[in-house]
Amino acid sequence: MIDYADFSVVVKNRAPPPKPWRWEIYRAGRTSPIEQSKAFFETMTEANRAGKMALGLLLSEYPG
């Protein structure tokens, strides 16, 4: 069984304004993201919200 606590959403500033923010999903023990947004966002809040939705979809693919 997969431990969902091993996954986290991180928002990073990766581009110049006006849309510098992107979300990245990490799994414990890895230094590189297992998934990241293709789109960039204007605010950290937007990126975080979208990242949490993406994490929910990713975790729903794993059998629990």
Short description:
The chain is an alpha+beta fold. The protein is 27% helix and 25% strand. It has one helix at 44-60, and strands spanning 7-13, 21-27, 35-36.
Tell me what you see in this structure.
This protein is 27% helix and 25% strand. With 64 residues, it is of the alpha+beta class. It has one domain (4-60). A 3-stranded antiparallel β-sheet has the order 1-2-3, with helices on one face. It starts with 6 loop residues before the first strand and ends with a helix.
Q: Can you summarize the main beta sheet?
A: 3 strands, antiparallel
Q: What strand line-up does the widest sheet have? A: 1-2-3
Tell me the β content.
25-35%
**By helix and strand content, what is the structural category?**
alpha+beta
Shape: elongated
Helix and strand arrangement:
Elements: E1 7-13, E2 21-27, E3 35-36, H1 44-60
Antiparallel strand pairs: 1-2, 2-3
Features of the shown structure:
alpha+beta; 1 helix; single chain; 64 residues; 27% helix; 25% strand
